[in-house]
């Protein structure tokens, strides 16, 4: 019993003292300094060396207690230069040694590895909750339970070179979309590249399935569509839009997709809906077979794949419109 009372009397005052005892900054701020660089604490002088010492431009005899008025005036005049500065005052350090140094004054110039500011305008998403998210979930389930297994089997059966040849064939057939979009944007160099690629690949490219224009002549592919045409003439992208089975888009690009479909020769040459749906499905499966691993990495690495895909789409479309 006595031991318990002793512990209570010991720990309660100790805890209260620890709670209200001023920390190191408060203690240091409460110390006083006399002109001789000695700390005064509890009326006891503790000699110490001041961490910051200002060189004296004039010697002042502090031991002379009989100084006259002239000497006192000299002391007052020299006080600003001769007395030691309180190391905890604002005058102790003329420049903050821990302040950030700008790139212009650090002797190294601009940081070559600094990332450029992202000036891409934010794409509004007012349809996220009641339309885009549900459609995204539907597309994701469709991909995981149907498209990915089919594309993976397709990838295992057909070699990559064969799948690239099929991709080249589809890209060649749909060249009117890129040609018209390039001409409408007055990008005549790209329009010339589209025509040159079609002529070369369809002549010596094994029925347009081998990209001889790029591999042998260095004529790079062109990526243009009617959505970029609208962006070129200043039409904003509008709200973000997730289309069933087709994936990320926007209001502007949704209109562009409609025009692209009308410019696609397959839309006019295919005799019936079943054949057209079969060709479109085969193209989607073939294209998906190239991105199975990328889609998996994105979904595993992103905190919210929906937001990651939306931001990536917005950034990518901005690059295509402005290039």
Structure characterization notes:
The chain has 323 residues and is mainly alpha-helical. The chain has two domains: 33-56 and 63-96, no CATH class; 128-322, no CATH class. Helix content is 57%, strand content 6%. It contains 14 helices and five strands. The protein has helices at residues 2-20, 24-30, 69-82, 128-157, 160-173, 175-184, 188-204, 212-215, 226-232, 251-263, 265-269, 273-288, 292-301, 305-322; strands at 32-33, 38-41, 44-47, 240-243, 247-250. The strands form two sheets. The chain has a three-stranded antiparallel sheet with strand order 1-2-3, with no helix packed on it. It has a two-stranded antiparallel sheet with strand order 4-5. Strand 2 and strand 3 (44-47) form a beta hairpin. The longest helix is centred in the middle third of the chain and has 30 residues, at 128-157. The chain is globular, with a radius of gyration of 38 Å. The protein starts with a helix and ends with a helix.
């Amino acid at each position: 019993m006595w031991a318990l009372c002793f512990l209570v009397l010991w720990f309660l005052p100790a805890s209260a003292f620890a709670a209200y005892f001023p920390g190191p900054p408060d203690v240091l701020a409460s110390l006083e300094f006399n002109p001789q660089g000695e700390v005064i604490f509890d009326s006891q002088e503790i000699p110490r060396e001041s961490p910051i010492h200002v060189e004296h431009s004039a010697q002042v005899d502090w031991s002379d207690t009989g100084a006259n008025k002239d000497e006192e005036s000299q002391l007052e005049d020299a006080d600003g230069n001769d007395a030691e500065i309180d190391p905890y005052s604002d005058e102790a350090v003329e420049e903050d040694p821990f302040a950030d140094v700008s790139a212009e004054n650090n002797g190294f110039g601009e940081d070559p590895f600094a990332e450029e500011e992202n000036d891409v305008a934010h794409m509004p998403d007012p349809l996220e909750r009641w339309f885009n998210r549900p459609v995204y979930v539907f597309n994701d389930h469709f991909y995981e339970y149907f498209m990915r297994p089919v594309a993976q089997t397709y990838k295992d059966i057909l070699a990559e070179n064969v799948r690239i040849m099929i991709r080249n064939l589809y890209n060649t057939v749909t060249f009117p979309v890129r040609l018209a979009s390039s001409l409408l944007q007055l990008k005549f160099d790209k329009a010339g590249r589209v025509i040159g690629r079609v002529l070369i690949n369809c002549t010596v490219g094994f029925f347009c399935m081998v990209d001889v224009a790029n591999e042998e002549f260095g004529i790079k592919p062109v990526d243009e569509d009617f959505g970029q045409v609208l962006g070129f003439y200043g039409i904003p992208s509008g709200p973000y839009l997730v289309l069933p089975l087709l994936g990320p888009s926007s209001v502007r690009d949704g209109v562009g997709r409609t025009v692209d479909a009308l410019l696609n020769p397959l839309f006019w040459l295919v005799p019936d809906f079943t054949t057209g749906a079969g060709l479109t499905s085969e193209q989607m499966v073939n294209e998906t077979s190239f991105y199975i691993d990328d889609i998996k990495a994105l979904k595993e690495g992103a905190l919210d794949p929906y937001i990651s895909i939306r931001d990536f789409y917005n950034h990518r479309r901005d690059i295509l419109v402005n290039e």
